[in-house]
């Protein structure tokens, strides 16, 4: 019996890990909780004010327009059309969201982080070079070139990106494990904050001259 207890401990540890691991928002305590922007007549609060269930209609669970390409005429050559709780109130408390991402030829969805969600990305059209980088100290890159029909997963909170490596437009659909995944675009946050981060911070952090920092800050 004594020899089996380490194995038992291991199994119990795994079971506890599985029990306490959650890859999405907390599970809802009711069927739904359609978000309403005003607090005039809310029923209860769980993330956002909830619409009175008696007045909820089918349209509260519908978003129209994800068939429409985003406008990729910008510096990055990409456009994200989010379907988060702000666009689809019925998502409130349900722990999922979507987005459509359009890419012009050679367009980039720049390195960014979703602080509250993992993401599964389905490529519908084009070829995307995608990847994510693990946390310190390894900072290991996992990257792959994807074709239509391929799905790639980006773990929650890790820096990731998608680059259209084809000469045609590309389209992808993202699914995310939060009604409000959050987006932190690395370059914008670091070099385009308002007010700007003191350049002394960035000079040391990036190990470059102040002129390089000024140049980078000027881009945002
Ligand atoms: C796309 O965005 C560009 C740059 O903001 C703008 O000039 C252009 O009118 C937009 N195109 C459409 C179809 O909205």
Provide a descriptive summary of the structure in words.
The structure is a single chain. With 220 residues, this protein is α+β, with helices and mostly antiparallel strands. Among the domains are: 73-87 and 94-182, Jelly Rolls, CATH 2.60.120.10; 184-220, no CATH class. It has helices at 5-20, 186-191, 199-206, 210-218, and strands at residues 45-46, 48-49, 78-83, 97-103, 108-113, 119-125, 128-133, 141-146, 151-154, 159-164, 170-176, 184-185. It has a five-stranded antiparallel beta sheet with strand order 3-4-11-6-9, with no helix packed on it. It has a five-stranded antiparallel beta sheet with strand order 8-7-10-5-12. A hairpin with a 7-residue loop joins strand 7 and strand 8 (141-146). It is globular and about 60 Å long. 25% of the residues are buried. The model has no long low-confidence stretch (mean pLDDT 89).
Unreliable stretches covering 5 or more consecutive residues? none
For this structure, what is the CATH homologous superfamily of the domain at 73-87 and 94-182?
Answer: Jelly Rolls
Roughly what fraction of the amino acids lie in strands?
Answer: 25-35%
- What profile does the largest beta sheet have? 5 strands, antiparallel
Structure in a nutshell:
With 220 residues, this protein is α+β, with helices and mostly antiparallel strands. The chain is built from four helices and twelve strands. The strands form three sheets. A five-stranded antiparallel beta sheet has the order 3-4-11-6-9, with no helix packed on it. A five-stranded antiparallel beta sheet has the order 8-7-10-5-12. Strands 1-2 form a two-stranded antiparallel sheet.
